[in-house]
What we know:
The chain is mostly helical. The chain has 2 domains: 9-127, Rossmann fold, CATH 3.40.50.300; 148-220, no CATH class. It has 11 helices and 3 strands. The two termini are 33 Å apart. The model has no long low-confidence stretch (mean pLDDT 86).
Amino acid sequence: MVGRRRVGKTALLSHAFQDKDLPPLYLFVSRKQESLLCDEFTTQIREILSIPIFGTPTKLAEILEILLQYSTSTPLTLIIDEFQDIQRINPAFFSELQNLWDRYKSQSHMHLICCGSLYSMMTRLFQDRREPLFGRADNRINLQPLRPCYLAELLSDRDQLSPATLLQWFMLSGGVPRYLEMLIQASTSESLWQELISEHSLFIEEGHFRLAEEFGPMALT
């Protein structure tokens, strides 16, 4: 699954896999050293799946193999969020994943969902013939922001629907659910613009973050 940040990927996956009998294992790839990330994942696996893990895994491939072995006897949905950031941590992992998947796929009952927010990198990882994961994805979802018709329904439910308001909200949010939440949190329509352009505006902070993410810190200088 790929989609820009704040578009609701994690919320959608959480809602889709809310079966209490077989809850998914959600692992978020934060930008830290691989050994530290493995410590974090090991703790989650012990708490959520109650798997006895002996020793201290220091490689993501070791974590994945533990989960693949577990899934040979127990079905498991594994969600790896911000999957593309593994490229920053250990680029060799993708080749290791290819090897492990090919070894265990005939006996494993794992539903692996790789979720990412950088379209170009996620597309390259799974659709570039030179990449080890090429051809391994069974399905692809490109999650898009909400269309204006759904935004109109939201405004109608709030008794705020008008051509001007619809244009204003779509212009400011682009249909991105998180930005719509921020607009809803604005106290009144009269104070909306002041809240958006204030020194402490979350929209301005978000703009800085998006620019730095796509173009690097130099984009803000």
